[in-house]
Structure formats: structure tokens, C-alpha cells
Amino acid sequence: MAKMSPLLMTLLFIVLSSMMMNQLPVASSKKWCVATPTATEKQLGDNMEFACAIGVDCRPIMPSGACFLPNTTLSHASFLMNSYFQSHDQTDHACYFFFPDSSIITTTDPSYDRCIYPSH
């Protein structure tokens, strides 16, 4: 069996590695901020009140809005908290609100049906 030169082996390694890298899934750089299921109704209500008071568009969670259903505090808070998070360039700090355990950053898109959660 003939020996390969170190240069040829390096080139072969680079080509094969490049081919394999193109087969791997790319991690999403999109992030969302959503309410945690363990947050209390009061915590989520305070977070929603804060978001609406500082200018987040709260119309999508109103009865005629695309994100009204399901009509739950958890769902409505998630949408508003994410809207605030996105308007502050997805900074980690923008997802913590008043209660550190009331929200979490995720890379899984929480959008559903007509309710589209914004992301950069």
C-alpha cells in the first residue's frame, strides 16, 4: 500500500471534514423569552402589566387578537414578555422582569396557529 504525503493527508482531512460539516444541523441563533409554568398568576400578571405600561403592543392578546387563545395568563404573559425581550435586543436581562423564576429563554419557537412570536 502506498504511503500518502502529509500534505495530501491534510488536504484529504480538510475536504472530508468540510463535507461532514455541511451535513450537521446548524444551531438556531433565534431566541425567545417565555413564562415558566411554575410562575404564579400574580407574577405573570405583574410582568404583563409592566410590559403593557412601557409600550409593548398588547393588542395580540385581546379577545380579537391572534394570540388571545388559549385565554390563559401563562400564554398571554409569554407573548408579552417575549415582545419586550425582542424590543430589547434579546438581552438576557430583558427576560428576567421582576421575578427571576417567572421566565426563561428558549431557542424553541413558541409560535402557534396565527400567533407568531417575534424574533430577530
Automatic annotation (TrEMBL):
<feature type="domain" description="X8">
    <location>
        <begin position="31"/>
        <end position="117"/>
    </location>
</feature>
<keyword id="KW-0472">Membrane</keyword>
<dbReference type="InterPro" id="IPR044788">
    <property type="entry name" value="X8_dom_prot"/>
</dbReference>
<keyword id="KW-0732">Signal</keyword>
<feature type="signal peptide">
    <location>
        <begin position="1"/>
        <end position="29"/>
    </location>
</feature>
<dbReference type="GO" id="GO:0098552">
    <property type="term" value="C:side of membrane"/>
</dbReference>
<dbReference type="InterPro" id="IPR012946">
    <property type="entry name" value="X8"/>
</dbReference>
<keyword id="KW-0325">Glycoprotein</keyword>
<protein>
    <recommendedName>
        <fullName>X8 domain-containing protein</fullName>
    </recommendedName>
</protein>
<dbReference type="GO" id="GO:0009506">
    <property type="term" value="C:plasmodesma"/>
</dbReference>
<dbReference type="GO" id="GO:0005886">
    <property type="term" value="C:plasma membrane"/>
</dbReference>
<keyword id="KW-0449">Lipoprotein</keyword>
<dbReference type="Pfam" id="PF07983">
    <property type="entry name" value="X8"/>
</dbReference>
<keyword id="KW-0336">GPI-anchor</keyword>
